[in-house]
Amino acid sequence: MGTRRYILGKVAQAFLTLAFVMVFNFFLFRIIPGDPAALLLRGTSAFNPDNLAEVRAELGLDKPLPQQFLTYVKNTVTLTFGQSFFLRGQEVKEVIAGRIWPTILLVGTSTIASAAIGLIIGIYGGWRHGSRFDVGSQGFTLFVYAMPEFWFGILVLMAFAGGVGPFPAIFPAGGYDTIGADLTGFAHVADVLNHLALPWFVLTVAYLGEYALIMRNSLIDVMNDDYVMTARAKGVREKQILWRHVVPNAMLPTFTLVLLSLGFIFGGAITIEYVFSYPGLGLLTVQAIDTKDFPLLQGLFLLFSAAVIVANLVADISYSYLDPRVRAG
Amino acid sequence: MRPPEALPTYEGGPVSGTELEPGPPPEVPRNPRAIAWTRRRLSAARVWKTYRKNKLGMLGLYVLIFFALVAIFAPLLADEQGLHATCPCNGEPFSPPSAEFPLGTDNFGRSVLTLTIWGSRISLAVGLLATAISMLIGSFIGIVAGYRGRTTESVLMRLTDWFLVIPFLPLAIVLASVLGRSLGVIVLVIGVTSWPGTARIVRAQVLSVKTRPYVERSRALGASGWHLNTRHILPNVGPLIFANTILTVAIAILSESTLAFLGLGDPLSISWGTILDFAFSAGAAYAGQWWWIVPPGLAIVFVVLAFTLCGFALDEILNPKLRER
Q1: CB-based contact A205:A115 (threshold 8 Å)
Q2: Could you say which residues from 204 to 233 on chain A have a Cβ atom under 8 Å away from some Cβ of chain B?
Q3: How far apart are CA B78 and CA B105, in angstroms?
Q4: Does A297 contact B305 at a Cβ distance shorter than 8 Å?
Q5: What is the DSSP letter of A46?
Q6: What one-character DSSP code corresponds to residue B111?
Q7: ipTM score of complex
Q8: Distances (CA, A) of B273 to A184, A304, B301
Q9: What string of H, E and C letters represents the secondary structure of A85-109?
Q10: Fewer Cβ in 10 A, N or C end of chain B?
């Protein structure tokens, strides 16, 4: 199979998946028990039949289902998700756009950090597998895997922002920057980084185990390949074997994992953002849950899913360039 | 027609049980059903013998037994009245650990120890039930796809891929907030979002089992699809499903705690996740009330760790891919 055909096939698959998510999303928000219009107005003074009909018309719920679906598809393609239920007068699109950068900053930098640290741990652990370092890092990985990340976040928050026992409260308890401080230039950057520190640390620790594990296992696989034995027989130095022969070949799965985790750059820190009241898309999701803001939730869900689908596609395509066997198979 | 098991084959039977220590020869079973059961009993004994040698696996098993006992005997360990905010047995709100309340109290003065003990019931029950749903869907789709092949397979596998790609937590959040807050919804949501991995593993195993000679022989003898699936394919895929189940429970318990923490759990039933939700919402982290936060979290960590260790140990024995190494 040629490269072009392989890529086209993958792109087509990604579009199909996106279409599936869209259809799924449409029906998901129409199985809500009860009337969305009633849900919206309940508890407000505007809860009467006239208003109900008006809101229903506004949401397009009075039209037949196929027509609703067409409107939905048109709106989704043009990224119009309508107005947020509870942040009245604001477009879902704008609400999301306002929260996107803090999340990219937080999740993006911690993904890079956890991948880099995890890689190094994985390389040392795999190269000397069975050593004390390896067993220790494996145990750590397992423990972090079993730990709900939000719980770890609360513990870190309590220790370094609340201050417990011997721990000093040295970091701010949450937010993106100090509200009302009106800092500019370097002082503002420092302030933002100061707020970023704790959630960044939690996310980095929570995810580095995964990278370490993948790198370790693929390193061990590669170490047993024939060409490594050849290199050894030629008298290549151990250090040279590791960094020139083994690591580059063992990088593939880790590289894919990094690309795949970029798909979670928007939706990957929902609980951590909530714990640290970090005003990104994750905290927005929790606020949407609390206020039953379905249009907002719908938009966020589509964004999160689309990011993962795109990341999968990118991973597939770049993998085929890095490892020609994939294209052939 | 008679089931093909009636044929006097000794495939994997007592005769081939070379790993067992020599002893009195096993009694000769009288009918085909007895042969099958003897065979299964012996292979279960073999698995247990290998499992016992896995130290981490045994550690996980002990921890699980401990938590299972706590959940079963919760009424004996702590008074259920202690779960109510108005119980006269409650102490001062937010009091740190003391002789009377070994793990301190929460904002209503309830004993955190009582909450954690009773929370084990909901957390474990939700984890197990959600896993059961996930396994049913996953195994069914995997077996049907693997056995039927052709269009059925491609449609089902495409569906599986879709569910695999949709990010789990956002999907679960959306489903749970659309369907409302109750335990049933949580179970259902975790169940219907966590099956794709199982479906893929099961399908792969079915594909390899269905081409084996004894399945072909059975088909040649006129066995129906139902018979082939329930008598030959399912028993061979079963162990793998079992190992996968144990690992899925760990994920389901973690998912329950996450959804509950985000405020999607049933507010009336106390699980480890809802305790953490209450504690965080009440500002326990800022007030430094560690006794309210540490116990339920540690309980989650231990249970998830234990299930994972058991799952890995079983996987090593039962997963054909790992066994070859």
Answers
A1: no
A2: none
A3: 14
A4: no
A5: T
A6: B
A7: 0.84
A8: 41, 24, 12
A9: CCCCCCEHHHHHHHHHHHHHHHHHH
A10: C
Contact A100, A239 (CB under 8 A): no
Give the residue, B275 or A176, on which the prediction is more confident: B275
Q: Which residue type occupies A259?
A: L
Q: Exposure pattern of B12-21 as b/e (b: 16+ CB <10 Å)? A: ebbeeeeeee
Token look-up 């760790």 returns B305
Stated pTM of the model = 0.84
A313 vs A31 pLDDT, higher one = A313
Q: Which of B174, B258, B285 sits opposite A271 (nearest CB)?
A: B258
Q: How far is CA B325 from CA B203, B313, B321, in A?
A: 22, 14, 8
Question: How many angstroms away from the CA of B258 is the closest CA of chain A?
Answer: 7
Buried b (16+ CB within 10 A) or exposed e, A11-47: eebbeebbebbbebbbebbeeeeeebbeebbeeeeee
Residue A270 near chain B (CB below 8 Å)? yes
Indicate the length of chain B as a whole number: 325
- Model pLDDT for residues B78-97, shown as the tens digit of each residue: 777 777 777 777 777 777 78
* The pair of three-digit structure tokens given for residue B79, joined into one six-digit string: 């008074």
pLDDT of residue B8: 46
Tokens of A40: 């919206």
Contacts of A155 in chain B (CB under 8 A): 293-294, 297
Q: Are A297 and B161 within 8 A, CB to CB?
A: no
